Fold this sequence. Notes:
Distance between the termini: 52 Å
Strand content: under 5%
Radius of gyration: 17 Å
Amino acid sequence: MITIDEARNLYRGADGVHDFDHILRVLTLAERIARAEGADWEIVRSATLLHDWARGYADAHGLDHARLGAEWAARWLTERGFAPQQVAAITHAIAAHRFRSQTPPQTLEAQVLFDADKLDAIGAVGVARAFAYGGAQGQRLWADSEQVDLSRWEAEGDDAAHTPVHEFVVKLSRIKDRLYTAEGRRIARDRHQFMAAFYRRMALEVAGEA
């Protein structure tokens, strides 16, 4: 079994949005969902602890952090004596956890990780993460949601004009409809409502109407 300390060491230097605090929050959500859905907790736990460890390197080199993380995890787990079937299950979950992944989560364990990771991107924590990331990237605090060109974003990805509002329109607002598990969707309903209300309220305040 991977220890918390072993996993923590893999995230030294991670940014504040994808640091080990994020991993621990996702781990708590993953345990809750895995218990409700009857998933193999050892597979879910291992995949959760390792799912973002390649992000910093991948982002710096224009790579898919989920795919790279799965490759790193395969070697790391094999060196530590994990059985081949365990390695395959864990690395599939890691490879399939991205919102924009080309690899859909095909096992229950992969779906649990996907849902837990996405739940940490919505609700109050999700709002905080969106604005923390935007600030770190020098993004504007606000933009009119009507200015978000969804077709351009889907074709070209993020650009210099991206803001936390863009992130809400193009990704965060869609998460509740992309989840796989019943428990994940149940948790998402309340988080989505809070998040949507926050963005509506901020729009009123920016306009001087509240």
